[in-house]
């Protein structure tokens, strides 16, 4: 059963660090949702299998008004039903109302991912965020009120002026809200974003890599003490509270994508939807799946093997040698003997019951280690 990601490319404002595919031209919202409704019917016609999970991400899905939210959820329910193992929507706390949460629940949403980033006003200002902790509290209250008991909260570390105490205080604020899942990302600034320009001007100072690593180590220890284990490079959860949707990506399962820029892999093909909102709407209105044909890739077996390895090694469970053999008719240990030996010697990789996995030190530098495959 595939997993569907649906992108909502609108935000009320662009945060200082963000280079995601999103637009502040919210006048296009209504036409966009009308197009998504049509795309969902096209997806259903092309891929009739039931979906296991749905993730509506952004941008800011919670920016949709009640009418748009209702249209979107109705189209999902009409095409795919509502009994998904997991149906997540991403939310910016400042744009969520009780009525919206009630609509989400009625449409089958059973998990919410909330962008908090930090609990301290001084850091939210540096990040140029428009929300505050009280709004996160209100959002979680509304989730409880309408019976959505699974939620994730996003945090960012390695922010200018952020101390280890700030990171831990933010984690505590999240745990105080009963969250059983936290995503914690190291701040990464592409050269075009406002904060990168401020750093070049010297208006803000980025922390050293060593200090960022200390923040992460402190966060891992703190969350472990409070029952949340690191199950992926940037994701922590209580047992059984992992995100099923994201696990599907990391385990290289089949996925589908809807909305602008959505990237997905189905069988041996990788697709990417058109990035421009206008081109996307035109294509769907023509009755076509809005795929950017120039980006479609036929994955060779070698590419599928590589993708499987790099995504699975993001997980603390690592690679299952038997699953690998069943999928690719290859012996993982034989194929990568030299690399496995070297990484075990560096004490970043460990033997598990089922195969091999990075330990925390390995996960911290996973991309670097995987570049030597
Ligand atoms: C693409 S955003 C969408 C969610 C929602 N709009 C929000 O801002 O909360 C998903 C998450 O990615 C993280 N993120 C976005 N840009 C980032 C960056 N440059 N560095 C680190 N984390 C980033 C933030 O934690 C954010 O909550
Ligand atoms: S971080 Fe979220 S709210 Fe901010 S611009 Fe990016 S997608 Fe929009």
Write a structural description.
The protein has 373 residues and is an alpha/beta fold. The chain has two domains: 3-250, tm_1862 like domain (pyruvate-formate lyase- activating enzyme); 320-370, no CATH class. It has helices at 29-46, 66-80, 98-106, 121-127, 133-145, 164-176, 194-201, 209-225, 244-250, 277-285, 301-312, 321-328, 332-335, 337-345, 360-364, 366-370; strands at residues 3-8, 53-58, 86-91, 111-117, 150-157, 181-186, 229-232, 235-237, 255-258, 263-266, 269-272, 297-298, 319-320, 349-351, 355-358. The relative contact order is 0.11. The mean pLDDT is 97. The structure holds S-adenosylmethionine and iron/sulfur cluster. Iron/sulfur cluster (SF4) binds at residues 11, 14-15, 18, 20, 22, 58-60, 92, 115.
Task: Identify the notable features of this structure and list them briefly.
binds S-adenosylmethionine, 18% strand, three-stranded antiparallel β-sheet, pyruvate-formate lyase- activating enzyme, alpha/beta, binds iron/sulfur cluster, 373 residues, nine-stranded mixed β-sheet
Give a topology summary:
Elements: E1 3-8, H1 29-46, E2 53-58, H2 66-80, E3 86-91, H3 98-106, E4 111-117, H4 121-127, H5 133-145, E5 150-157, H6 164-176, E6 181-186, H7 194-201, H8 209-225, E7 229-232, E8 235-237, H9 244-250, E9 255-258, E10 263-266, E11 269-272, H10 277-285, E12 297-298, H11 301-312, E13 319-320, H12 321-328, H13 332-335, H14 337-345, E14 349-351, E15 355-358, H15 360-364, H16 366-370
Parallel strand pairs: 1-2, 1-9, 2-3, 3-4, 4-5, 5-6
Antiparallel strand pairs: 6-8, 7-8, 10-11, 11-12, 13-15, 14-15
The structure holds S-adenosylmethionine (SAM) and iron/sulfur cluster.
């Amino acid at each position: 059963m595939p997993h569907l990601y649906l992108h909502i490319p609108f935000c009320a404002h662009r945060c200082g660090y963000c280079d995601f595919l999103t637009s502040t031209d919210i006048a296009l919202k209504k036409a966009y949702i009308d197009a998504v409704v049509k795309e969902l019917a096209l997806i259903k016609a092309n891929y009739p299998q039931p979906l296991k999970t749905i993730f509506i991400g952004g941008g800011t899905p919670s920016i949709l008004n009640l009418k748009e939210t209702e249209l979107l959820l109705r189209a999902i329910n009409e095409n795919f039903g509502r009994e998904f193992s997991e149906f997540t929507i991403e939310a910016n706390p400042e744009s969520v109302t009780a009525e919206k949460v009630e609509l989400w629940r009625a449409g089958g949403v059973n998990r919410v991912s909330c962008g908090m980033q930090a609990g301290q006003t001084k850091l939210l200002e540096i990040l140029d965020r428009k929300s505050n902790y009280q709004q996160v509290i209100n959002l979680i209250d509304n989730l409880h009120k309408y019976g959505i008991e699974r939620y994730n909260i996003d945090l960012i570390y390695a922010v200018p002026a952020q101390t280890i105490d700030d990171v831990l205080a933010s984690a505590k604020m999240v745990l105080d809200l009963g969250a059983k899942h936290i995503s914690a990302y190291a701040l990464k600034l592409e050269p075009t974003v406002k904060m990168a320009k401020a750093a070049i001007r010297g208006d803000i100072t980025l922390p050293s890599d060593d200090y960022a690593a200390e923040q992460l180590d402190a966060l891992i220890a703190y969350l472990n003490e409070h029952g949340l284990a690191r199950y992926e490079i940037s994701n922590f959860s209580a047992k059984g509270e992992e995100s099923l949707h994201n696990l599907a990506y990391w385990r290289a399962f089949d996925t589908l994508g809807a909305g602008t820029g959505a990237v997905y892999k189905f069988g041996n093909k990788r697709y990417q939807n058109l990035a421009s909102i206008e081109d996307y709407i035109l294509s769907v209105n023509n009755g076509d799946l809005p795929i950017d044909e120039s980006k479609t890739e036929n994955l060779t077996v070698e590419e599928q093997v590589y993708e499987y390895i790099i995504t699975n090694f993001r997980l603390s469970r690592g690679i299952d040698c038997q699953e690998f053999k069943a999928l690719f008719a290859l012996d993982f240990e034989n194929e990568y003997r030299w690399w496995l030996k070297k990484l075990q010697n560096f004490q970043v990789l460990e033997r598990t019951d089922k195969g091999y996995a990075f330990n925390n030190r390995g996960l911290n530098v996973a991309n670097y280690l995987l570049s030597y495959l």
